Amino acid sequence: MRRERLALLVTLLVFASSLAAAAWLGARLFVAERDNALIASLGAGHDLAVSTDDPPELLFARLHFLATRDRLDEAQPLLNQLASGDDRRLAVAALYDMANARLRLAFDQLESNRIDPAIPLVRLAKDNYRRALTLDPGFWDGKYNLDIAMRLVRDFPQIDLEGEEIPPEAAKKLWTDLPGLPRGLP
Amino acid sequence: MERFARILPLLLLLAGAAPAAAQLRSVDLYAPRGFGYVIGDTLTLTAEVALDAPFVLDPASLPQPRALDYWLDLRQARLADHGVRDGVHRYTLDLVYQTFYAPLEPRRMTIPAVSLFAIDGERRVPVEVPAWSFLMSPLREIVATGPGPAMVLRPDISPGPIPIAALLRNLAAALGVALLAFLALAWQMGWGPFGRRRARPFTRAARAIPATLRAPAGDPGSPASGYGSALRMLHRAFDATDGRGVFAEDLPGFFERHMAFRSAELEIRRLFDASRRAFFGADPAGAQRDLPPADLVALARRLRAVERGTL
Fold this sequence. Notes:
The complex is a heterodimer of chains A (186) and B (311). Chain A has 186 residues and is an all-alpha fold. Helix content of chain A is 72%, strand content 0%. In chain B, the strands form 3 sheets. In chain B, strands 1-2-6-5-4 form a 5-stranded antiparallel β-sheet, with no helix packed on it. In chain B, strands 3-8-9 form a 3-stranded antiparallel β-sheet, with no helix packed on it. Chain B has a two-stranded antiparallel sheet with strand order 7-10. Chains A and B meet through α1, α2, α4, α5 and α6 of A and α2 of B.
């Protein structure tokens, strides 16, 4: 009798806990399905806002939406969040898409012969590709596009400006360009 | 630099450091293949360092992961200490580099030497992991000759949905467990179709009777014998089926209420006659002649089949 009661109790416990697990999973599934609907809606071109608490997949969908519409300033905070997030795959994708968007923008500038605004765009794109490749060294599309960006604006060994040692001529130049500096009149 | 291009264990004795040579046994560099690297690739150099015993590698002299050059990052520096054996302290140093050079044609690049220090408290001896060079290859032509425009980016990664397959699988598993637990609960509580399982006294009797007949080899005349017990089991099954005590004179009423058993009416009457002889007539031997144990077993099985509705 006692054993039967114990078996009954165990069965009840298993039943209750599996029901609770099912309810929790069902709730998560419901939320995921809702977010997937939002992702699909963003993909269809609806301008939906997201919040920073949303799952990274949704943030990435929003970033892709913004990046493909040249709204890079709005996309940057999302990129920062995704690049420092836990999901490495999405971090790589976000860095790569953002770099692509910058590079496309730079192409547009170059086509209309505006070199100066294009250069920082290419530099930022290169930086993002590099960060993507740092996370995933075997990412071939990233390698290919970084190669394109590298040939647009090549890297060169730069003077090491880190630390306190600013070269004297650079320090001089820094000051002479400043307006309103006393010119050493007595 | 050419001499380092081979994959080789390389013995490096420090030139111009004669007293140091005594403390530093060897630095062997194990390098990966020296060609076919493209932009973004990682490569791992492994250096095996052997020092004379009191010396240890100064952990502070290990290179920190950082950008070494505009095209070269040191991603990782792992030092494994293999301890002292035969007066030689051995280490393995793994250096993981990532190259970001974009060559226009195959080009030899050099990873610079790494300087470490071995210490034994007061003395400090330099340990140098030698430089290594490798060939990098371009990914694209210099002048595009393929179809289409020259500079086409590889496409974006499009956003995908949140993966729900694992969630669905877990949910199905949880529901499955819940269903099984519910069935077990119903079985234990005798709910629904399991209720009838409980009310199958003939099934239970048919299962128990053969063993009961075999068990006590004692006096076949005593009512406590296996035969008597088997008879009582069948009677209890009748009682349980009808919900009250069933005696020979109650049989017509019993058949009224349980029509299915009418097909076995003759045998049932034989059973009741035999038990009357056994229990009230004090003639168990005669009862056993009327209804031999084998027939009793067969009757129990027959009644079980009737109860299940398979007859």
